[in-house]
Amino acid sequence: MGSRNGSVLVCLVPEPAMPLPVPRGRKSMSSATPSHLPAAASRRAPAAAGGPKKIAALCTAYFVRSHADNFVTRFLEGYWLGGKLHHPACEIASLYVDQVHRADVSKRLSMAYGFPIVPSIREALTLGTGTLAVDGVLLIAEHGDYPVNEKGQKLLPRYEFMEQVIHVFRDAGRAVPVFVDKHLSYDWLRAKQMYEWSIELGFPLLAGSSLPVAPRRPEIDLPLESDIEEVLSVGSAAQGDGLLFHLIEAVQCFAERRRGGETGIRAVQMVAGAAVWEEARKGRWDRSLLDAALGCRYLESNPGRPEDVAQRPMACFLEYNDGLKATALSLGGGVVFDHLVAARLKGQSQPVATLCYLPSEHANYISPLVDSIARMIMTGERDYPIERNLLTTGALAFIMESGYLGQRRIETPMLDIRYRAPEQSYFDRQSYFDRQGRD
User: Fold this and answer.
1) Between 280 and 361, residue with greater pLDDT
2) Which domains does the chain show, CATH number per domain?
3) For 152-186, b where at least 16 C-beta lie within 10 A, e where not — what string?
4) Could you give the angle at the alpha carbon of 76 between the alpha carbons of 73 and 80, nearest 5°?
5) What average pLDDT does the structure give for the chain?
6) For residue 300, how far is the Cα from the chain centroid?
7) pLDDT in tens, 256-298
8) Residue 163 contacts by C-beta under 8 Å, 6 or more apart in sequence?
9) Rounded CA gap, 154 and 18, in Å?
10) Do β-strands 90-97 and 53-59 pair in parallel, antiparallel, or remain unpaired?
């Protein structure tokens, strides 16, 4: 089953019971970025042989600016990358919507584009034929009226949707590529089962956040085998698992490029409030990485010391098996409104840092991910390993457990997940800033 680049080794242990950052306004690029790397626009999904590929879209709710709108509507109307409109050689063949939102737009889109809205996931995949009749599945379960548990996790039915998809695959004796929006599940065991289904039935599975594929400023892509000592991501208002996941994925897409490849995570911990800054004073995380990251801000924010102005600060600590330290830092608004990453490399006096830019207009930050999904459906190959998402999904689940247990450190032998990152990271390399002329 295809990871587009690099070899993959996964070991799942059974569970018990660079240069100075570029300030705003400068156009110079980081020397850590090889100038010959291709833009995302040069890796478009190929044309379909024998007509468009058929996609079953499975959504929890569909309204303007929902994740269903961000993904499914782009397959209907096209998406913008590199200043050009692209239409993937795929078509939405069916749509299942679990809950009808008061501002639902799915019915209007169904009438406009001629695809059926069906009453079950099985019918979405079989198209009335009694057997699997689509070439790919979009599983977009991010919005809707679902309960939130005592840990602060929204119990979105990604696993339940996937389980029904697997029933159809088994009955048909074959499987097709599946994309799952964001993390696989709020629960580690469910996420691992979803991954294991993809291995068992041999279908490409892709999942993840928009942050790893968003435009970076500067366009830093650390070479494989980089001597990375520590990584930090920072963003705002990441209360709850859905938003924290973005920060953890941003960390991982840099951490995985270190010497020796990914080795897994041995422990996690969530801390909040004044303890965040106390842990920095103790050396738990490198405070200078935060300064380097904040130097890449695009949106204006409070110029005061983060320690003084951060609202509801929270730090998620990731301890890797090979000794790498990483921190996903939420400052809860007031300090930063962007998503930023900084890393310290051995032998370099200054950290490398970048902005992972999510332009709000028309949610166009989803377009690189849509492009990657279309390519997987067309070719069966992925731009990055699913093991990245399996690891970040597990890390998030146990971080939420840490918060629930009073910010306790939790050992995670089950996250002994090993893999190699692709030779080049997949992200929108033709800078959004340059296209818009905003520098």
Assistant:
1) 280
2) 41-212+366-382 (3.40.50.720)
3) ebbebbbbebbebbbebbeebeebbbbbbbbbbbb
4) 75
5) 87
6) 25
7) 999 999 999 999 999 999 999 999 999 999 999 999 999 998 8
8) none
9) 38
10) parallel
Which amino acid is present at 209?
S
Cα of 118 vs its chain's centroid, Å: 28
Sign for the CA dihedral angle at 44, 46, 51, 52 comes to negative
Element containing residue 81 per DSSP (H, E) = strand 79-81
Please give the sequence-ordered ranges of beta strands (E in DSSP) within 309-362, or none if there are none. 314-320, 325-330, 339-345, 352-356
Rounded to 5, what percent of the chain is helix, strand, coil?
30, 20, 45
- Structure token pair of residue 190: 């469910």
Residue 258 and residue 322: Cα distance in Å, rounded? 10
Q: How far is CA 130 from CA 115, 127, 172, 304, 365, in A?
A: 18, 8, 9, 62, 37
Average pLDDT of the segment spanning 214-239:
91
**Residue 18 confidence class, pLDDT cut points 50, 70, 90:** very low
Mean pLDDT, rounded, for 193-213: 97
* 130 residue type, one letter: G
Q: How confident is the model at residue 72 (pLDDT cuts 50, 70, 90)?
A: very high
Residue 411's CB is within 10 A of a number of other CB atoms, namely 13
Question: What's the distance, CA 254 to chain centroid?
Answer: 13
Name the amino acid, one letter, at 82: G
d(CA 212, CA 31): 20
Helix axes 67-77, 367-379, angle to 10 degrees: 60
| 312 neighbors 332 (Cβ within 8 angstroms) | yes
In this structure, what DSSP letter does residue 40 have?
Answer: G
Distance between first and last Cα of the chain: 42
Tokens of 55: 């996609």
